[in-house]
């Protein structure tokens, strides 16, 4: 749509808020882990036996973890706000479905977080917790695209396949990133188990996957430029910029022996990369089949 009505702007605002809050909780979750506060509240849904809230005797870690838990209610409130607005205006079935997926996924995300506490921050469950956030961010970007003044360009099968490959490879990058984290020292609690994998080996695999993703993104940029695909070109440039930022921070934290503050900035990059690759994906659509065109 070229112009949004006042009601559409409200929904657009809710969708933007959903994206920002879900990106934000990725970063605050990293703060919890990197400050060793992952088991500051040692059970779930209570913070400690018989109490939903922490108390002074539990120490600062309990308040850090509890603060992150409270942010979930902000995410739920925003998701409900978007859903209520959907029911008040005429929207597509696809957007309605995505708004429901957003709300349900946040609830599921809270359960996964609770399970991770119950199992003593098992690194594989913690990894699922982050990857769920990445999936929600992709949903949020699509919601924004459907309701906002954003367009997409029809592309051929090769170009569409390249974009999809870039998205898929970015997901692999983020998964391997969780394996690196789960194999390193920043467990979220000193007593938490690690994956048992050699961190240098998994870090190298992660690095290789990153450079493959960068190569795919550059290929997207080249095709978008040569074929005059303005939207695809814009988001390819943005994604490459985020990947360069991530590479600088990632290698810096490797040589700095996983300095926690560098890791936090790396997690900022994770949320930015998820949003950027989602926008690249939304900027293109498959070209209609000639057979369907003749039939119509």
TrEMBL record:
Q: Where in the cell is the protein located?
A: Membrane
Presence of the UniProt keyword Zinc in the record:
no
Q: What is this protein called?
A: Heme A synthase
Identify one Pfam family in the record: COX15-CtaA
Q: Which organism is it from?
A: Cutibacterium acnes subsp. acnes
Which InterPro entries does this one have?
A: COX15/CtaA_fam, COX15/CtaA_HemeA_synthase
Coiled coil regions, renumbered to chain:
none
Spans through the membrane: 12-32, 70-88, 95-115, 121-141, 162-183, 203-224, 236-256, 262-284
Q: In which pathway does it act?
A: Porphyrin-containing compound metabolism
Question: Which keywords are on file for this protein?
Answer: Cell membrane, Disulfide bond, Heme biosynthesis, Iron, Membrane, Metal-binding, Oxidoreductase, Transmembrane, Transmembrane helix
Predominant place of localization = membrane
The record gives the membrane topology as: Multi-pass membrane protein
């Amino acid at each position: 749509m070229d112009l949004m009505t006042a009601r559409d702007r409200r929904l657009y605002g809710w969708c933007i808020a959903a994206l920002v809050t879900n990106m934000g909780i990725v970063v605050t979750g990293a703060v919890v882990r990197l400050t060793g506060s992952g088991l500051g509240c040692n059970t779930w849904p209570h913070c400690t036996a018989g109490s939903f809230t922490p108390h002074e005797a539990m120490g600062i870690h309990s308040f850090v973890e509890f603060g992150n838990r409270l942010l979930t209610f902000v995410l739920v409130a925003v998701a409900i706000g978007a859903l209520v607005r959907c029911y008040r205006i005429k929207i597509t079935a696809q957007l309605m479905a995505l708004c429901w997926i957003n709300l349900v996924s946040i609830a599921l995300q809270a359960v996964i977080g609770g399970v991770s506490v119950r199992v003593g921050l098992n690194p594989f469950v913690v990894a699922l917790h982050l990857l769920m956030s990445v999936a929600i961010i992709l949903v949020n970007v699509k919601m924004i695209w459907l309701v906002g003044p954003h367009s997409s360009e029809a592309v051929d099968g090769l170009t569409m396949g390249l974009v999809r490959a870039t998205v898929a490879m970015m997901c692999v990058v983020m998964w391997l990133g969780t394996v690196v984290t789960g194999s390193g020292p920043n467990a979220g609690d000193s007593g938490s188990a690690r994956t048992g994998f050699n961190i240098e080996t998994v870090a190298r695999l992660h690095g290789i996957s990153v450079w493959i993703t960068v190569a795919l993104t550059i290929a997207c940029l080249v095709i978008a430029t040569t074929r005059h695909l303005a939207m695809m070109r814009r988001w390819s440039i943005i994604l490459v910029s985020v990947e360069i930022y991530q590479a600088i921070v990632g290698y810096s934290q490797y040589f700095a022996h996983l300095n926690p503050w560098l890791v936090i900035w790396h997690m900022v990059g994770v949320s930015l990369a998820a949003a950027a690759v989602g926008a690249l994906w939304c900027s293109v659509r498959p070209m209609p089949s000639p057979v369907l065109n003749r039939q119509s």
